[in-house]
């Protein structure tokens, strides 16, 4: 892998298994024998999922659609994935909640009994942030069989294909990482801009040496790119595809690969008239922000060498664009005369400490627009930690909005609670130590699907009757936001007071010390008075678990069962450090709460 940061090793963490294991459409990549990445979409065609990550093993089972039936948008990829030891990559995308998870590895085994089943020995697994992913309704079409469409292959883009390219707001890039040779061979150091992550630069062999065969590729990767329509464009020469690499794509997985091994393959599955394009070419990355489109920091250019157009996709899957990401800047290519993208800034003021090492910051648009949000969502800010290098992009949950909700969540001010983390990239320490009141920070957006939409019509009828909120450490902030909003919005739900069936919410929060819990007293008062402020339609109970500095008192299955005896009857929302989330998944599973009843938020992107 040519990127700088990976997380999670080869195991799909428990809190991402639901996402991975529920996909009936997936996006896959491998490497051809002549060393080209190739990507395709595959569909299940029936109710069964395509990918299964199970237990603690670094394995992924993949149910390949059969040769005869529908399923593979590009059947040649199937053959590549059936080669033993073939590099392979999969990305699970939930275009509804804008979540994605990437898995890489090598094909380890086929099941002789079920030839369509392959096992991937996974080497890298990682989530990516939700920014730039459009909302798309995507569904498989259960066709019994379809004629194998004949792809049209050419060495350049036709005018019609160029127009199709310009229409997309979502596409995939397949890339490869070169084999790393022993240190004795000539090496050079790949210098990528600082991401705030502390991994050292990778040593790679000179790029052109590796334009050989698949034996020179260590791994395949597939990643997603999203933006406003027109962000992927054909340059004036008609032979170069190009897209801006927006702030936030800071892990350099794909760009690291393309810099070290410039063969790229683009997959455009969301095109009108049931078409799909696969485009191969040699990629170059321009690191000069001045030559990047639409306020981006980098630009990727691909000199087109092969275009494959396949029709008949409407018989495999249906798709509908619901909305583009509100993180994505406006695209200047559209109509040629659009104004430059508006960068938004907020004034930041430190308010007070809300717990040990947790400070509250007020963000204000100063009358320049509002900050609509749904409780549980977060802001993403650019934090200028080191002078002269790129700001770090970090997200913080909106804990409250000073005028609380009425008549909507919309306000020009919101508050975030930032815990100082001395072991990280430095953004939280900068906020605590360097920010001066009134500093302006760039706001990239307000996002998040881990929400409790207390103002939505019929909320009281749709919220689960029994809900368990499980958090640890600073992972409590989404629940602070939700519970404060639930209380503040109670007067708007007067009619709910007639409800005989109250919603019963338990917050079970683990902390090393009580002094580290933000909003502790406010939450306790809210819980104590919950019957009163909700007119009997909500009851809120809080259980604190104090683990101590070394985490000796950590909560497990027994602790959960003792604090929440009816846990098996509850829906769960879970937020905390990765190891805690893993433990909770295991504990909840043992208590009869399967992953389909657990919604998660990870603070690590
Ligand atoms: C949706 C969301 C909501 C959030 N809400 C809040 C909030 O309300 N309050 C709050 O204080 N923080 C919140 N965070 C976390 C926040 O974005 C920052 O990560 C945090 O403030 C620390 O920033 P930092 O630059 O100091 O450290 P970071 O560089 O962000 O590192 C944070 C920690 O993660 C570890 N880490 C980093 N990358 C990896 C990796 N790949 N694998 C394993 N460990 C890694 C680091 O060692 C460090 O201990 C939220 C994050 C997300 C994604």
Overview of the structural elements:
There is one protein chain. The protein is an alpha+beta fold. The chain has three domains: 14-184 and 203-323, Pnp Oxidase, Chain A, CATH 2.30.110; 345-447, Beta Barrel (Elongation Factor Tu (Ef-tu), domain 3); 459-601, Rossmann fold (3-Layer(aba) Sandwich), CATH 3.40.50. It is 14% helix and 36% strand. It is built from eleven helices and 30 strands. The strands form six sheets. Strands 9, 10, 13, 14, 15, 16, 17 and 18 form an eight-stranded antiparallel β-sheet that branches. Strands 2-1-5-6-7-4-3 form a seven-stranded antiparallel β-sheet. Strands 20-21-24-23-22-25 form a six-stranded antiparallel beta barrel. The chain starts with 13 loop residues before the first helix and ends with a strand. Residues 1-8, 183-212 and 335-340 have low confidence and may be disordered. Flavin-adenine dinucleotide binds next to β23, β24 and α5.
Give the structural class: alpha+beta
Q: Beta-sheet strand percentage?
A: 35-45%
**Sequence stretches where pLDDT stays below 50 over 5 or more residues:** 1-8, 183-212, 335-340
Instruction: Identify the CATH class of the largest domain.
Output: Mainly Beta
Q: Report the average pLDDT across residues.
A: 83
- Structurally, the number of domains stands at 3
């Amino acid at each position: 892998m040519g990127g700088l940061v990976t997380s999670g090793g080869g195991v799909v963490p428990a809190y991402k298994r639901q996402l991975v294991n529920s996909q009936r459409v997936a996006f896959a990549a491998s490497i051809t024998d002549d060393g080209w990445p190739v990507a395709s979409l595959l569909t299940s065609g029936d109710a069964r999922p395509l990918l299964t990550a199970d237990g603690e093993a670094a394995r992924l089972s993949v149910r390949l659609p059969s040769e005869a039936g529908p399923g593979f948008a590009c059947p040649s990829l199937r053959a590549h994935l059936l080669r033993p030891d073939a590099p392979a990559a999969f990305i699970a995308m939930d275009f509804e909640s804008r979540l994605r998870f990437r898995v890489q590895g090598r094909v380890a085994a086929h099941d002789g009994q079920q030839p369509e089943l392959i096992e991937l020995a996974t080497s890298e697994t990682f989530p990516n942030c939700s920014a730039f992913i459009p909302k798309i309704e995507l569904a498989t079409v259960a066709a019994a069989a379809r004629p194998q469409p004949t792809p049209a292959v050419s060495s350049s883009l036709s005018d019609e294909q160029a127009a199709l390219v310009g229409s997309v707001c979502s596409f995939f890039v397949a890339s490869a990482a070169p084999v790393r040779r022993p240190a004795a061979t000539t090496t050079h150091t790949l210098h990528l801009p600082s991401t705030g992550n502390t991994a050292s630069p990778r040593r790679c062999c000179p790029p052109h040496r590796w334009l050989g065969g698949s034996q020179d590729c260590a791994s395949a990767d597939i990643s997603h790119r999203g933006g406003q329509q027109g962000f992927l464009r054909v340059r004036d020469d008609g032979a170069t595809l190009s897209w801006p690499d927006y702030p936030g794509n800071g892990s350099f997985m794909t760009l690291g690969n393309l810099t070290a091994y410039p063969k790229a393959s683009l997959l455009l599955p969301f095109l009108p008239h049931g078409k799909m394009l696969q485009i191969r070419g040699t990629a170059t990355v321009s690191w000069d922000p001045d030559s990047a489109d639409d306020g981006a920091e980098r630009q990727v250019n691909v000199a087109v060498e092969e275009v494959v157009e396949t029709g008949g996709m409407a018989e495999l899957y249906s798709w509908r664009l619901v909305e583009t990401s509100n993180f994505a800047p406006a695209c200047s290519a559209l109509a040629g005369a659009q104004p430059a993208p508006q960068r938004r800034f907020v004034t930041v003021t430190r308010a007070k400490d809300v717990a040990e090492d947790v400070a509250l910051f007020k963000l204000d648009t100063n009358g320049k627009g509002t900050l609509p949000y749904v409780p549980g969502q977060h802001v993403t800010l650019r934090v200028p930690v080191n002078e002269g290098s790129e700001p770090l992009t970090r997200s913080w949950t909106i804990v409250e909005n000073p005028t609380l909700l009425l008549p909507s969540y919309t306000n020009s001010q919101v508050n975030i609670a930032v815990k100082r983390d001395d072991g990280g990239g430095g953004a939280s320490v900068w906020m605590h130590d360097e920010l001066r009141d009134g500093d302006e920070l760039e706001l990239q957006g307000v996002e998040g699907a881990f929400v409790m939409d207390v103002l939505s019509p019929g909320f009281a009828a749709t919220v689960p009757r029994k809900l368990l909120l499980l958090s640890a450490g600073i992972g409590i902030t989404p629940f602070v936001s939700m519970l404060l909003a639930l209380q503040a919005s109670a007067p708007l739900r007067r009619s709910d007071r007639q409800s005989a069936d109250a919603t019963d919410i338990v917050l079970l929060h683990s902390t090393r010390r009580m002094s580290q819990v933000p909003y502790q007293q406010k939450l306790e008062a809210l819980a104590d008075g919950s019957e009163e402020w909700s007119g009997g339609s909500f009851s809120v109970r809080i259980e604190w678990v104090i683990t101590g500095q070394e985490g000796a008192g950590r909560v497990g299955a027994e602790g959960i069962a003792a604090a929440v005896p009816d846990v098996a009857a509850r829906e769960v929302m879970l937020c905390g450090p990765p190891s805690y989330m893993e433990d909770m998944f295991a504990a909840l599973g043992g208590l009869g709460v399967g992953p389909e009843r657990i919604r998660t938020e990870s603070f690590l992107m």
